[in-house]
Amino acid sequence: MTKLTRTQLSVLASYSSPFVLIAAISINIILASSGLSTTPFKLIILSASFPVGFGIGKIIYMKRSNVEISFDDKSFQVFKGGKLLLHDNWRNYKLVSIHLDQYSRPDLRLYKTPNGDFQELPISRTNAHPQEFRDYVQTMISRRSTTESNLQVVEAC
Amino acid sequence: MATVSKKSDTVELLERGLIGGRARWVADLREFFRRFRIGDTTFDLYARGGTRNRGFLMSRFFAWSALPNYDVALLCISSESVRPGLTSEKLRKVIDDVLYLVRKEELKWAWLIVFLNSTVPAWGVSLVSRYDRQELGLSLASTTTGQVVVSANQIGRSIRKQLGLDKLIERIMHDKVN
Hints:
Strand order of the largest sheet of chain A: 1-2-3-4
Oligomer: heterodimer
Helix content of chain A: 40-55%
Structural class of chain B: alpha/beta
Shape of chain A: rod-shaped
Order of helices and strands of chain A: EHHHEEEEEEH
Strand order of the largest sheet of chain B: 1-2-3-4-5-6
């Protein structure tokens, strides 16, 4: 299965920034209580708060917000924070479109019937190129229609 | 992953521009379909949206308070998608299919852009430049000579001004030369 995913830096930064601050304050308190608050290496020691804060932020981000889309020629799966949100086959859909969300980010919409039920694939939160991926999905969906029409011809014969 | 065929490059460029917000001064196009079938015609691109921009805070409030909320669409077809070739009758059929969509989806208006891989024929210039129905803006654009013809109505003129079709064709011509 091919996987599409991407670290959303803005989301990661929003998770990490409180922990960076807490780590920096904690380091500062430790330095002050150890009588090292005037050491020239204070800034270097304080900078450790960034990897610590981003490390904790990354763990929370991966557990809550990381989006991953796995797919092959038959089916696809959407995971958010490690939880399976959607698992379906391409052949269950008839139409695909690029849909811009309220922030103008391009996602994919899969329609079971034209203007009917649809599922949204959040490709803007992955490293997928919207037009290329839409064309790929369209190929998968149209392959299903071709197979169905071929079967009908065979049955008619 | 599937590759996009060469013949679709012009349509792909147009779509990329629209996704990036090229038409936002006139229409906020939000959804983009490729190879969309209406009646007997398969359009290379069908984009739909509205005249009210979404925006953020001030622009959102302005859009909500001042802009009308009409549903609109853009359809695009290249002459290579019309078999055996684009004729006057075929173009009229394509226009009929677009007008059917306008009625069915209760659209206020629609744009129709036809890309030709030859010079714009005299019948095409005549048909498009005389077209005056208010709900459809028409355009014929040649990707070989760079000629762009638009209908004389308000929606047609906006294809040239707001949609920047001339610039797109210029870019395609420039890419071909280089």
